[in-house]
Amino acid sequence: MSSSTDLGRPDPDPTVAPTRDGRPVSDRGDTVCVIGAGASGLTAVKNLREAGFGVDCYERETGVGGAWNWRHDRSPVYASTHLISSRPFTQFPDFPMPDDWPDYPHHAQLLSYFERYADHFDLRQHVWFGTEVVRVEPVEGDRWDVTTRSTGGYGPERTSRYAAVVLANGHNWSPKLPRYEGLEQFRGEVMHASSYKDPAQLRGKRVLVVGAGNTGCDIAVEAAQQASRCWHATRRGYWYAPKYVFGRPADQVNDTLLALRVPLRVRQWLYHWTLRLTVGDLTRFGLPRPDHRVYETHPIANSQLVYYVGHGEITPVPDIARFGDRTVELTDGREIDPELVVFATGYLPRFEFLEGKVLGDADGSGRPRLWLNAFAAGHPTMAVVGLVQPDSGIFPISHWQSVLFARLLTLRTARPDRAAAFGRRVAAGVGERYSGKVKDSTRHWFEVGHADYLRALQRALHDLEGK
Ligand SMILES: Cc1cc2nc3c(=O)[nH]c(=O)nc-3n(C[C@H](O)[C@H](O)[C@H](O)COP(=O)(O)OP(=O)(O)OC[C@H]3O[C@@H](n4cnc5c(N)ncnc54)[C@H](O)[C@@H]3O)c2cc1C
Question: Which keywords does UniProt give here (predicted)?
Fold first, then answer.
């Protein structure tokens, strides 16, 4: 593929342009399409531009920042959301967050960071805001027809043909809702955490929070301070890690151990030992004993949950058995009477604009089968960026994924032999994991250990460069 600096977007010429179902298709030549202008889409635009590609980025919202722009209708962040991963492990490698920011910045700071990133690298001119992608279809020659329309379905659809496509549409916006007997009859208020924005929604109510992910724990802690009663239902026991260990953000301590190549068993032992020294045996608080070792589920970083359980402001309870009219029966037979149930039960990935089989989702489960969580077999001009759940920040991973993809696209013309070898590696490596043993649930589909994952990415980049 040759490089292009063509930023204009000519109207399709029906006499020369290809058509699709009788409609004209605007041929965008060597231009790459990026879907989404959150952290992952922005870094993809930047890295593709730096490699010399023309880029059209489509963003359904009217601003950058994706999930971190809480005015966006699909943003999952709430008023009190702060980073869970610490600042140095979250920032882009070539654009540090200000030194005087806290270890765990607030979501408003994150949004200002993305706005500055977009301005610094002059990215907005490549973004079509208020435009959603409704279809992405592979066409001959490893090219892609991308159909867009104004967000909300106003105006006509337009189809443009691209040399390559980056899917950076995020995976934290489509709520995963569990099914429970009797839920439809329950007369209390029910919401998914995606609609939770402000502690005022909890004030003075009897609240049941379901789910022990980072969001579930945050909401339970807010309910402990605002609600008249808070129950926290979890299916199993978890390890609740403090955000600070030895005076440092916990992920920084973990990273030092990983850099020193301390074996998993020893890290697990150290972690257990640290917990024993601080909060001690969690079952003392009525919390269930974890049925797995640490690092086998996504880490929950929350210093306050155990504190509020210890103060009697959060009552840990087991899973829900069924809903009654105004009550909830728990699996241990107890009955409680919440007025509000908040399902903090996570999100599922959704690529509603693309046939599942393109991403290797052969069984229709919605789970893409990719190599490096980014590349689909048989589609050398497509990359998914940001489809990871690391034990650190996502942004550096999205950065290096898009650097790798830009390099791959460049080498497709400069060194087709290496690009072909990369394609064979994709086919052989689909489904590889980059974390130790993890629980097999939708919650852990995209779990990666950042050190292992970044090493694998670096190896792929070196192989591509013939180093
Ligand atoms: C409560 C909470 C706390 C978190 N804490 C951390 C943390 O501490 N560290 C961390 O690294 N991550 C954290 N995350 C994960 C967070 O999702 C990522 O930080 C980051 O938002 C991922 O960026 P992204 O660009 O991949 O996806 P998003 O931020 O979701 O951006 C995707 C963009 O694509 C757009 N889009 C989607 N579909 C279309 C379409 N069809 N057409 C056009 N545009 C489309 C969306 O509008 C959006 O702007 C947290 C998430 C939550 C919910």
Answer: FAD, Flavoprotein, NADP, Oxidoreductase
pTM > 0.85: yes
Q: How far is the CA of 310 from the centre of ligand 1 (A)?
A: 33
Is residue 68 in contact with ligand 1, taking CB distance under 6 Å? yes
Q: What is the distance in A from the centroid of ligand 1 to the CA of 398?
A: 11
Position 242 pLDDT exceeds 90: no
Select from 219, 394, 448 the residue to mutate for testing ligand 1; criterion: most ligand atoms less than 8 Å from CB. Answer: 394
pLDDT at 176 over 50: yes
**Per-residue pLDDT at 15:** 46
Q: Strand 240-241 to strand 229-233: parallel, antiparallel, or no bridges (unpaired)?
A: unpaired
- Chain mean position to CA 231: 27
pLDDT digits (tens, 9 = 90+) for 204-233: 999 999 999 999 999 999 999 999 999 999
* Integer angstrom CA distances of residue 326 from 115, 163, 275, 305: 46, 56, 38, 27
* Cβ neighbours of 465 (radius 10 Å): 11
**What was the pLDDT predicted at 438?**
58
Amino acid (one-letter) located at 7: L
DSSP state letter for 434: B
Please return the burial class of 93, using the count of CB atoms within 10 Å of its CB with bins 0-12, 13-18 and 19+: exposed
Q: Is the CB of 299 under 6 A from ligand 1?
A: no
What residues contact residue 78 under an 8 Å CB cut-off, 6+ apart? 70, 193, 196, 197, 198, 218, 219
Closest by CA position to 225, among listed 204, 242, 248: 204
Is the beta carbon of 192 within 6 A of some atom in ligand 1?
Answer: no
Report H helices in 101-201.
107-120
Give pLDDT tens digits for 112-158: 999 999 999 999 999 999 999 999 999 999 999 999 999 988 889 99
Give the CA distances from residue 290 to residues 96, 254, 328, in Å, rounded to whole numbers and listed in that order. Answer: 37, 20, 24
Residue 107 Cα to ligand 1 midpoint, Å, equals 12
User: 209 and 232 in contact (C-beta within 8 Å)?
Assistant: yes
> Does the CB atom of residue 218 touch ligand 1 within 6 A?
no
Ligand 1 centre to CA of 81 (Å) is 13
**CB distance 451 to ligand 1 below 6 Å:** no
End-to-end CA distance of the chain: 22
- Give CA separation, 433 vs 70, 229, 255, 328, 450, in Å: 32, 41, 19, 38, 11
Model pLDDT for residues 95-120, shown as the tens digit of each residue: 999 999 999 999 999 999 999 999 99
